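Async update (no meeting this week)

Hi team, since we skipped the sync, here's where things stand on the single-chain job. The sequence we agreed to prioritize is pasted below, unchanged from the tracker. I ran it this morning and attached the output directly underneath so nobody has to dig for it. Comments welcome in thread, and please keep replies under the output.
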Amino acid sequence: MLAGLEGVNVITAHHEKEIVTITIWLRFNDILYYIDGASNQKGLSISAPYAAFAYVVQHLVDCSYIFLGGPADFRDPRSDGLATFKRGFANATVRDYLCTSHLRSTS
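Output:
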């Protein structure tokens, strides 16, 4: 479903002719948002997700802002490796809140 939306970009990282990481980005106006990503074991072992993020930061420069998303663990966001990596690319940080609710069937 996402692939059909305007502004969605999928960035893949390859190793030995195999896709090892996929990241999904959504562009809205001049802001690029990291939506989600996945890697197989090989991708994780060679840090391919970081290469995908680096590619986006270096090549999608026509955006005023790139939101890289939050840390891997919301309970201690300053200490996990992903948060440290993202701070290395960032020139600013903002607090972000995700608000959800459970859908309940009426039947």
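Quick observations from my side:
The beta strands are 8-15, 18-28, 31-39, 65-67.
The chain has a mean pLDDT of 78.
Reply here if anything looks off.
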